[in-house]
């Protein structure tokens, strides 16, 4: 009888463990994009990007379906011109007069092409080859002390996000931020805030 009870307990524990693993597997991969409470660009390790934009509805839109139809149309036009599924709609929600739109971009180039906003994501070496001159003041991210340009770009294998958004934007990177340029503010070790209409540099590894 005692052995049976032990076996029963082991079976219950096993079932609970399997259930817990199952819950983890079903976790929504887009939850962090939906949870963003400000305009945020999420850069992935494969250099794709997801952008959450929160804004008031324009007067020409009256509900989520009309907004979705408009965005779907713009995405189709852009993808048809490539042709590829370079931009896709991850999610869209409307709460009163506030809309949250989440779009995925297969590269920084497609973000630029679709939004007409400057964005570069790649290594420092690639940025230099593309003609970026890194003409700004740089700061060490851990203590915000000013550093020489040579120190900031010394490791050309480090990655850099260069952005000039038309609205304030938080940028989340798949690593640890090492240096930031002027007009960039600290949020956490993987996220920084950039200002509208300013070319901003975020170097990470």
Main attributes of the structure:
six-stranded antiparallel beta sheet, 32% helix, seven-stranded mixed beta sheet, alpha+beta, globular, 6 helices, 205 residues
Task: Describe, in plain words, how this protein is organized in 3D.
- The protein has 205 residues and is of the alpha+beta class.
- It is built from six helices and 13 strands.
- It has a seven-stranded mixed beta sheet with strand order 3-4-2-1-9-12-11.
- Strand 6 and strand 7 (146-147) form a beta hairpin.
- The chain is globular, with a radius of gyration of 22 Å.
- The model is unreliable at 10-23 (pLDDT under 50).
Any chance you could write out the topology, listing elements then pairs?
Elements: H1 2-25, H2 31-35, E1 40-43, E2 49-56, H3 64-81, E3 87-95, E4 98-105, H4 108-115, E5 118-123, H5 124-129, E6 138-140, E7 146-147, H6 149-152, E8 159-164, E9 169-172, E10 177-181, E11 184-188, E12 191-194, E13 200-204
Parallel strand pairs: 1-9
Antiparallel strand pairs: 1-2, 2-4, 3-4, 5-8, 6-7, 6-10, 8-13, 9-12, 10-13, 11-12
Q: Major sheet: size, sense and barrel closure?
A: 7 strands, mixed
Order of helices and strands: HHEEHEEHEHEEHEEEEEE
Percentage of helical residues?
A: 25-40%
Percent in strands: 25-35%
Class by alpha and beta content: alpha+beta
Q: What's the pLDDT, averaged over the residues? A: 88
Distance between the termini: 59 Å
Q: What is the count of β-strands?
A: 13
- Order of strands side by side in the largest beta sheet? 3-4-2-1-9-12-11
Number of helices: 6
Please mark out the parts with pLDDT under 50 across 5 or more consecutive residues, or reply none. Answer: 10-23
In one word, what is the shape?
Answer: globular
Taking all Cα atoms into account, the compactness measure Rg is 22 Å
């Amino acid at each position: 009888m005692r052995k049976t009870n032990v076996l029963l307990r082991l079976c219950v524990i096993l079932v609970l463990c399997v259930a817990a693993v199952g819950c983890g597997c079903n976790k929504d991969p887009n939850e962090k994009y939906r949870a963003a409470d400000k305009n945020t660009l999420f850069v992935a390790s494969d250099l794709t990007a997801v952008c959450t934009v929160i804004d008031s509805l324009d007067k020409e839109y009256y509900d989520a379906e009309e907004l979705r139809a408009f965005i779907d149309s713009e995405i189709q036009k852009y993808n048809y011109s490539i042709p590829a599924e370079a931009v896709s709609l991850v999610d869209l929600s409307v709460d009163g007069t506030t809309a949250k739109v989440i779009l995925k971009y297969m590269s920084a180039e497609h973000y630029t092409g679709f939004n007409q906003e400057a964005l570069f994501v790649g290594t420092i070496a690639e940025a230099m080859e593309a003609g970026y001159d890194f003409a700004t003041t740089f700061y060490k991210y851990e203590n915000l002390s000013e550093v020489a340009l040579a120190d900031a770009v010394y490791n050309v294998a480090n990655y850099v996000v260069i952005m000039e958004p038309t609205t304030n934007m938080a940028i989340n990177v798949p690593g640890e931020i090492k240096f930031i340029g002027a007009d960039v503010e600290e949020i956490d070790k993987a996220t920084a805030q950039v200002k509208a209409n300013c070319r901003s540099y975020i170097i990470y590894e």
